[in-house]
Amino acid sequence: MSTPPDGLPVYRVLTGPDDASFCRRVSEALSLGYTLHEGPAVTFDGENVIVAQAVVWPTGERP
Question: Which segments constitute the DUF1737 domain (predicted)?
């Protein structure tokens, strides 16, 4: 597949509280064929740990 399914973008940043729901969203993106782009970014909003993880659709090209 040369493009992501369902009209999804090639580059996505998933964000949210560091919980099971966030992990499921990242896992779903990986199961669709996305790959992780670098490591996650993590911050604390005063109540929760918030995570951001970029995922990219493999194009076969190297940057």
Answer: 10-56
Answer yes or no: are the C-beta atoms of 51 and 40 closer than 8 Å.
Answer: yes
Rounded to whole angstroms, how far apart are CA atoms 41 and 54? Answer: 9
Closest CA to 16 of 34, 31, 35, 29: 29
- Nearest CA to 55 out of 7, 15, 1 is that of 15
Instruction: Look at residues 24, 3, 6 and name the one whose alpha carbon lies nearest to residue 53.
Output: 24
Put simply, whether the predicted model's pTM sits higher than 0.85 gets the answer yes
- Nearest 5°: CA angle at 51, between 60 and 35? 15
Q: How far apart are CA 58 and CA 2, in angstroms?
A: 8
